[in-house]
Amino acid sequence: MTFSSLKQRIDRHRAYSRTRRELRALPLHVRLDLDIAGIEDQVARRAVYRQGA
Question: What is the pTM of this model?
Answer without folding.
Answer: 0.84
